[in-house]
Design brief:
222 residues, alpha/beta, Spore Coat Polysaccharide Biosynthesis Protein SpsA, Chain A, seven-stranded mixed sheet, three-stranded mixed sheet, 7 helices
């Protein structure tokens, strides 16, 4: 089981409109607590936890002040998920890590536990937790991948990536771009037959847009 996790909280949250005019999306409250705290609750017991920050980074840092959580501030430019993960590697260490988006909520078993139970570094370079499109509450766009019977993922299909994964980081050093998406890393892994997926048995809500706030609270209430 990885002993480090990266939580992505640096984005501008533009789809949220006025809700992110003066604060970062991870600090928007859902069911009485910030999105970031919903995500952090899933990470208890993981020794090394890193949250990246760029947009209103001072608010993220202030929110986490006094905790044992590291903040990796991306300045002057935002680095996207791949560049942000690479910047945090001196804290995270060289071994495989969890990553988790902070703009979603979950109903069901802890997604990180499921990933840890299934992770097999002998055949996997990344294990992405996915849900069928029908269980992706608030998702407005099509699915991301096809999950094959052998567990491998290929591009396009009817399963949605939830933002939770275990990933090896060695290939990050070979990417020349300073700012880049983890999609670039996944493409390299898929080409090598080492990008794998796992279906989450519960429900998951995308809170990347204002309507998702109500949907998330309804899902948690139910």
């Amino acid at each position: 089981m990885p002993d480090a996790i990266m939580l992505f909280a640096a984005g501008f949250g533009t789809r949220m409109g006025r809700l992110t005019k003066d604060r970062p999306k991870p600090l928007i409250p859902v069911a009485g607590k910030p999105l970031l705290d919903h995500a952090l609750a899933l990470t208890r017991g993981i020794p090394t936890r890193v949250v990246n920050a760029h947009y209103h980074a001072d608010q993220i840092a202030a929110h986490l002040h006094g905790t044992d959580i590291h903040v990796s501030v991306e300045q002057p430019d935002i680095l996207d998920t791949g560049g942000g993960l690479r910047l945090a590697l001196p804290i995270l260490g060289p071994d495989p890590v969890f990553t988790l988006n902070t703009d979603a909520v979950w109903r069901g078993p802890n997604p990180l536990d499921l990933l840890a139970e299934t992770w097999n570094p002998d055949v996997m370079d990344a294990l992405l937790l996915c849900v069928p499109h029908a269980n992706a509450v608030g998702r407005k766009t099509p699915g991301d991948f096809t999950l094959h019977p052998d567990g491998q993922l290929t591009r396009t299909g009817d399963v949605v990536y939830t933002g939770a994964q275990i990933v090896k980081t060695e290939r990050l050093g070979a990417i020349e771009d300073k700012a880049f998406s983890l999609n670039l890393l996944w493409t390299l892994m898929a080409d090598a037959g080492r990008l794998h997926g796992l279906i989450y048995p519960g429900t998951w809500c995308d809170v990347g847009h204002p309507e998702g706030l109500v949907m998330a609270e309804d899902m948690l209430r139910d």
